[in-house]
Structure formats: structure tokens, C-alpha cells
Amino acid sequence: MTQFLKTGYNLCITTLVIAAFASSCATKKQAVSQTVTLKTTATASGSTATATISPTKKEGIKKFSDLIPAKTKVDKGLFNTYKVDGKYYYEIPDSLLGREMLMVTRLAKTPADIKVSNQQYGGEEANDQVWKWERHDKQIFIRVPSYSVRADSSSDMYRSVKNSNLDAVLASFDIKAYNKDTTGVVIDVTDFYNGDVAAIGISDELKKAYKVSGLDNSRSYIDTIKSFPINIEARVLKTYRAAESPTDNTNAAITFELNTSMLLLPKTPMKARLRDDRVGFFGQSQTDYGTDAQKAQVTSYIHRWKLEPKDAAAYERGELVEPKKQIVFYIDPATPKKWVPYLIQGINDWNVAFEAAGFKNAIVGKEAPTLKEDPDFSTEDARYSVIRYFASDVENAYGPHISDPRTGEILESHVGWYHNVMELLRNWYFVQTAASNPDARSAKFTDEQMGELIRFVSSHEVGHTLGLPHNFGSSYAYPVDSLRSKSFTDKHGTAPSIMDYARFNYIAQPGDGVTHFYPQIGEYDKWAIKWGYTWFPGNKTVKQEKEVLDVWVKEKAGNPLYYYGRQGTTLDPRLQSEDLGDNAMKASTYGIANLKRILPNVEKWTYQKGEGYTDLQEIYTEVLNQYSRYMGHVATNIGGMNENFKTYDQSGPVYDFVSKSRQKDAVLFFNQQLFTSPLWLIDANELSKFDNGLMLARIKVVQVNTLANILTPPRLARMYDNETKNGANAYTVADLFTDLRAGIFTSGRPDAFKRNLQRGYIEDLKSLLNDDLNRSYPGVSPVLLASFGLTPINIVLSDIRPMVRAELKLIDAKLPKGGDAITTAHYTDLHLRIKEALNPTRPVVNIPAAPGGRGLTIGGEPEQKMEPYSN
């Protein structure tokens, strides 16, 4: 019993006692009494009354006909559902008790201006779980199984694993009735779906962001519950009391509409496929106690759709065969009609990859059916995969998928497509290709041009839904000069995988004749789909299939076209976002040459009559951002290591250092392209239209941030490790300091950019010498940190500080004297900064070290901006 009173006063506690007697002469044991305590308190959102009821006599199990009147409409499906007097009932057949069901809750409708992570728009996922409905005596429980540990049912360890892996209880329900033929039970699910149950509500992240204190039942309700053959869809509106609201704080609340899908998982799980670090697939891991390994072994399964040939005999003969069940993606009806064909084409483009696995017409994109064509179709329904279109200014798109936690079988996907991804595509396509691509020289592209870019992004995101992660090593396969060839790019695009962040061809120069500037489904994509989706006849075991797949992988080893490079590490210079070609220095030099051609023409190419200079400013900023990207691509070569995952039966190193000559070339590139003042970035005529005094500072940021990136302790740690292992063949810290000094402290009067750079260098050295740069990563092993480029080093006990001290003294001894007023002041200032570094008088910057004291020091890496398509 809950009541909301419109008053601002603190009200007293009212106690209401209701007594019911069986008869006038009943004894105390025969009497049934119920006490309801109503407590009313004032809050910021009004006065709230809450009730405590104790004790309550449990209602007995009724006859079906007493609970569900004869004329009640039944919604037949997975569970038959009924609505009686505002209450919702599930009729659960005994045959489905204990069956695993996947629950997916999505935001169906959201308030405006939600700005939390990816949970912002209708259609995005809030939660997923596996449920099992179980009966115990006169109750039904929802159990939530865990799949973190496993053992085959035939294994000696199976019983032990079951004893140590108890399924949690999410909710309980009293049985209200047995169904007509006593083959099932009926429960009331009204309070469950109306309640504040985390599994079917908004996320903790959203609750924290808007300071949610609880669910307001008076402003919440069940909209519909619909049953289908293998799923049930429950649509609810939930209003949460919130101290902060994204729209109107006077409501002291935030309202969402949510859709919870409950999908029956296959009774016989799909055969899993073991994951391999040498081929890129999303996957899941579990500790498997059922193997014959003499340890608790972690096994990983890839995520993939279940594809089986309709005609197994024809498949075995090598003919292309359609799958028994096609992968189908529907386009959100909210999508602008002109983009629908391009989104569909991006989906269908993957058929060429599935042909490598022996399937034809394996995947198809379709327009969603109209209400007249299929009144039961819903974009939130977990049976359907959909590209959802969001009216949003976010410049992004993402491609998630939901998989069976038992085997990795992908069951459905809802690609998130933000309207403003088009602005991102326009800016990048302009900045990366306009020098050699006349079609990109416009503030607004034609629908055909934008459609082709949308098609490319659609293919990329659908690739994620097929189980493929980003392959950041793919673009390294193509020689830089090959990307200047029309015949090569017409055939191969910009990389062997559309899953790389190899956007548009910034390498091609005017006159090369290149006309194909973006990626496409490539050699690696076809190979990955073949590896992940090929169907093996003869009922091979998972281990037997792995043996065949291992042979395939070894046949491709060493061929860069089929190389997979993971995302997230700064260790390997081949594994980078937004880069092209096999040599970052050469590719970036071509890219800068094109930026120099584009910049003086931005105003002319973005001209729009009667419009302000917003596009000029935006594109000019993108030119600077692109220039900064090139600096990041080159920096990773210094202290870099190549990573090539292998097994015992493959020869050669897994990790080896980037060659000395290439590291030296990287510093030479900086001396020429960054430390030599990039005055070409200043076009006074164009800057006068929008810049209000920020350009010097913006260029300085690129210069000093790149320099700080070069001088991070993890990078220096790897360089010392290289010197220890490889001696004269290594590019050393001493070599680095010598080469940097030659580019930063050149002869002649330093201009404003050079002065900023010199101060930045001294400050970086000062920090290495005096500051405690420890970062705390509790519970993370040094081996794992090093694999992501966060190579540990104890700065205090390392050679870094002696070398830095010597470098500062050398610079101080060679500083010129005299010059004009600003030059004299600059050198005087540098001398004082060096003196302060060598003899500090101010407190050092201390960042707490990881537990364990001096043994682990992680130097700070610059923050990396997340690029779109990161999901």
C-alpha cells in the first residue's frame, strides 16, 4: 500500500489496525489479524507514504477458472500470458522449467539530453542475463546461472563444479493456480515487472549520473506484455525519483520506457569454436575443469552465428550452399529513406566473405515490415537484428551483439547508428582526400557520395555483429606506394580488412589517378570468416576442428594480408588507429603534403552563400587534428616492438624490437615536420575569419604533447631493455637525446614555436628527473601492463635519471647568450629552469605508487582520444 500526499508538512506516524475475526467466539489462534503501519515523510519531490504490512496470510492456490475468468483473452506463445483486472499472469508449462532463457532489456524511449556512456537513445541495451525458471514446492524462482567455470557432464570434475557454482536467485513467485490440464503453473508477474529490479531497469551508471533514489510506483506502469513462439516482450514505463534530471529538475524524477525480451535458448547448444589469438574474433572465457590439463585451464570460445548448410552433401562437394537459417538485419523504420539502400548494401557486402566459408546468401539486409505487413514486429524484439537510427548529434556508430554464454552463438544484434556520423564522415573524407579527389571539395556531399560512405561504415559495424573485432594491424600489409596506384586501390581499397581504422586514402597524391579512396571487404575479412564459419562435416569434436584450423593459420603465417593486430596496445607501431601503409614516416610525409595543398583552399571549397564561417573553422581544425594524428603514428615507432602471436610449432620471435634505422627515421621525421616550425599551418587570410588568437597555442599543444609522448617512462624502459639485449643494434636513449637535441636546439634565433618546444623539452626532462610518476594498477601484473605498452620501470633505480641529469647539464652548457630582448629572456629562463631541475626548491609532484612499494613504477602515457566505431 503506497500513497503520495500533496503537502509540504512533516506528518505524524499514523497506525491503522485492522482486525478480522472468524467468528464472535473465535480464540486468539483462530483470529487472523493484520497490522499496516503507514509512515509519511516529506521529501524534495513531495510527501511520500510507505507501508509495512505484517503479518499477511498467504493466499492459497486457486482453481485456474477462479483466477483466470473464462472470457479472458489468452496471448499464446512461449508462456501463455493473461491480463486480469490490471494484473499480468504467466502460465509456465512444466516442460520449460529449468530451460535457459536469454533476457535482454533495452531502452525503448528515453528523455531528451541523456548524456551517459552509450545508454542514451531508444533501442540501446541496458542489461542482459540468462534466466532459468524453477519450481520449489509452491513457489517459482528465477535463477541466474553463471558460466565462468565449467566441466563437461562426462568429466570426473562435473559434480565438483556444480557444487561450487550455485545459481543465484533473482526473484520468487507464489504459484497462484495450476493450468487446466495440470501441466503447468500460473504466477502473477505484475509486481516483478513494476518493481525496481536492477536486471530489468536502468543501469547503475544512469542511476548514479542522475542521483536516482528509487522507483516511483505511482508514476510507473506495465504497458504491454506480448508472447511469441520463442520469446516474451514486456514493455514498461518506469519513473525514478532523481535529484537531478536531464530535462526538468522541477519534476524531481526521470522517466524511461524499457523493453525486456526473454528469448528461449536452444535446447541443444551450438558446438563452440575455440578462440585463437592469431585470428581476430570476439569471444568469452571460462575456467574449464573438464580438460586433461594438469591445471585449471582457461578456455575461450569465439562469438559467431550458427550457420549450417541446407544441403550438406553439396557443401562437402565444394559447392556454395545457402544456410539453413539466414542472418537477417532489418533497417529501423525511423531511418531516412534515402540512406536505407546504402545501409542494406553495407550488410549484403559481407556475402562475398561468407562465400569463402562455403555459403551463399548467408546474410541479408531488409526494410522493417510495416504495421500492416506484420503487426507483431518490434525493433526491440530480441528475435530480430536491427540497425537502429538515432536522432543524435553524436558522431558515431557501433555494432554490438548478444551471444549465448554457453557456446558463444550470436543470437541477435542492434547496431546503433547516430545521425551525426555523417558530419564525421564529411570532415574526414574532405581532410584526407580533397587534395587528390575533386568530389570531396564541398561543404556538402551529394547523396550518392554520402551514401557510399554510409555503406562503408555499415559494413564495418556489421562486421562487429558477425564477431569480428577491430584489426588494427591490417593496414600495415599494403606498401605505402601501392596506395598511390589506381589499379591497386580499385581492387584492394585501403587495407585488407574493413575492420581496421583505415579510413580514407590520404597517401594518394594529385596526378596519381586514384579514384577509390575508402576500405572494403578485403582479403583478411574473407579469411577470418572462412576460419570462423566454415562448417565441418562428420561431427568432429571441438578439439578436432581446432587441429584443422591450426593448419590453416600456419599456412597464412608470415603473410601480412592475413595478419591480425589487436586494438588497445601502444606497443606495436603497426597496430594503430587511422594509419595507412607499412611506413608511418613515409605515409605521414605524403599526408602532410596533401594537407599543405588543402589548407589554402578550405575557404574556397567550403563556400556557402549567406552562411557564416562555421565550416571553414571546422575543417581548419580537422586539418590540425589530422596533422596531430600523423605525429602519433610516427611516435609509436620509437621504443616500439612488433607483436606476432605464435604457438610452439611456429619459428621466430613473438616480440622483437623495431629496427634501429626505423626508430632513427622517426626522430628525423619529427625534426623535419614538427620541430621545424610548421608555419604552413598558419594561413592568415583564412584564420582572420574565425580564429580569435588561439592558433599559436594549438600548434604548441601538438608539438609539446608529441614530445611528451616520446619521453614517457614506458617507452624509455623498452629502449633500455633493447640496449641490454641487442647492444649496438639498438636505438638507445642516448641516441634519442642526441637526435632530439639536434632538432630542438638548432642554431639561429628561435621563433615562438621553437621557444615553446625548447621549454617543453626542459620541462619533460625536469619531470623525469624529479617527479614521482608512479601510476597505481592494483592487481594487474607487470606482464599484462607491458603488453599494452605500459612497460613498468622503477625510475629511481633506473638509468633514466642519470641520463636526464647529464642531458640537462649538456644543454645548459651550450645555451647561447645575447640576442634581442625576447631571445635573451628565453635563454635566461631556460637556464633558470635547468637550475631548478638540477636543484629543485619546489615540492615534487607525487602520484601514489602501486601497493608493494618501489618495485613497480608505471610512467604516465598521454591520454588517447577514443575514435568512433570503437564498439
TrEMBL record:
The keyword Signal applies. Residues 443-747 form the EcxA zinc-binding domain. InterPro entries: DUF5117 (IPR033413), DUF5118 (IPR033428), EcxA_zinc-bd (IPR032534), MetalloPept_cat_dom_sf (IPR024079), Zn_MMP-like_bac (IPR034032). Residues 862-871 have a biased composition (Basic and acidic residues). Pfam families: DUF4953, DUF5117, DUF5118. Transmembrane segments: none annotated. SUPFAM superfamilies: Metalloproteases ('zincins'), catalytic domain. One of its GO terms (molecular function) is metallopeptidase activity. The keyword Signal applies. This is Uncharacterized protein DUF5118.
